[in-house]
């Protein structure tokens, strides 16, 4: 997951709640059978309970999301899980700053305050020993406004300069809807993992909403639609054709 040559199946806490251990086992099995490197990742773990549980389920990596906590509490929360996860050879991603679902309803000050601060990020990395940092540079979960994303690439550059000295990779959540050029720039500025959910989900849902065939074929074509999006993204991220 932490280099562009990897794909990662990411399981969100709500999916884990729904699918439980069989879902994780399915993902691990599918990853093992693939002829390209695939890891299985627990995404946005925001409570100690769910993260400690996830540590025992066979994930390759976890994301510790303490972004709802005050800075110092985020450090101790992330440090605690990071210590446990790394003892099991799992990679740890954590978030600093606060990702918005949407930019609506935020004042400019609120919006700015949610961006990842370089000085804080440096302290955060040193204190927690994480492997990857999810940054907030204007990226959002879900859909970008019609005007498109406005990412603070200057901030990304500063974050990269600092994090690369510490051997920590940068992660960009909310990568659905980023142009080819923007993806390329982000890669150049140190992003090594892109999280894409909205576009994959949309392709699947659209097939189900407008069924052209009977149920069995609808499911098959929905899967094909998702695969097409993933193939396109792999090409964009430079991970296409990278087999074991
Ligand atoms: Zn995310």
Approximate strand percentage:
5-15%
Strand order, largest beta sheet: 1-2-3-4-5-6-7
Number of beta strands? 7
Q: Briefly note the structural class of the backbone.
A: alpha/beta
Order of helical and strand elements = EHEHEHEHHEHEHEHH
What does the average pLDDT come to? Answer: 88
CATH architecture group name of the largest domain: Alpha-Beta Barrel
Share of helix among residues? 40-55%
For the record, the CATH class of the largest domain is: Alpha Beta
Tally of individual helices: 9
Radius of gyration over C-alpha positions, nearest whole angstrom: 18 Å
Main sheet overview: 7 strands, parallel
The backbone outline, from C-alpha atoms, is globular
CATH-defined topology of the largest domain: TIM Barrel
Number of discrete domains: 2
Query: Kindly, what is the distance between the CA atoms of the first and last residues, rounded to a whole number of angstroms?
Result: 14 Å
Q: What would CATH call the homologous superfamily of the largest domain?
A: Aldolase class I
Bound molecules: zinc ion
Low-confidence stretches: none
General description of the model:
- This protein starts with 6 loop residues before the first strand and ends in a 7-residue tail after the last helix.
- The chain has 2 domains: about 5-195, Alpha-Beta Barrel (TIM Barrel); about 195-244, no CATH class.
- A 7-stranded parallel sheet has the order 1-2-3-4-5-6-7.
- The chain is built from 9 helices and 7 strands.
- The protein is globular, with a radius of gyration of 18 Å.
- It is an alpha/beta fold and about 240 residues long.
- The mean pLDDT is about 90.
- α2 links the parallel β2 (about 40-45) and β3.
- Zinc ion (ZN) binds next to loops.
- The site of zinc ion has 4 residues, from loops.
């Amino acid at each position: 997951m932490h280099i562009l040559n990897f794909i990662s199946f990411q399981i969100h806490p709500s999916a884990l709640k729904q699918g439980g251990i069989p879902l994780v086992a399915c993902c691990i099995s599918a990853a093992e059978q693939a002829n390209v490197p695939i890891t299985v990742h627990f995404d946005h773990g925001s409570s100690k309970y769910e993260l400690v549980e996830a540590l025992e389920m066979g994930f390759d990596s976890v994301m510790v999301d303490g972004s709802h906590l005050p800075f110092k509490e985020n450090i101790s929360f992330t440090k605690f899980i990071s210590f446990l996860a790394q003892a099991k050879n799992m990679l740890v991603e954590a978030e600093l700053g606060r990702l918005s679902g949407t930019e609506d309803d935020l004042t400019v000050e609120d919006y700015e305050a949610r961006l990842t601060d370089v000085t804080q990020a440096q302290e955060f990395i040193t204190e927690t020993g994480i492997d990857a940092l999810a940054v907030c540079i204007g990226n959002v979960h879900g859909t970008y406004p019609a005007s498109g994303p406005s990412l603070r690439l200057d901030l990304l550059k500063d974050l990269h300069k600092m994090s690369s000295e510490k051997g920590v990779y940068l992660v960009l959540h909310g990568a659905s809807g980023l142009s080819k050029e923007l993806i390329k720039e982000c890669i150049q500025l140190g992003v090594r993992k892109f999280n894409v959910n909205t576009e994959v989900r949309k392709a699947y849902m659209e097939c189900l909403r407008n069924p052209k065939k009977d149920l069995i074929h609808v499911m098959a074509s929905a899967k094909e639609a998702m695969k097409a999006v993933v193939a396109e993204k792999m090409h964009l991220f430079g991970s296409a054709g990278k087999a074991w």
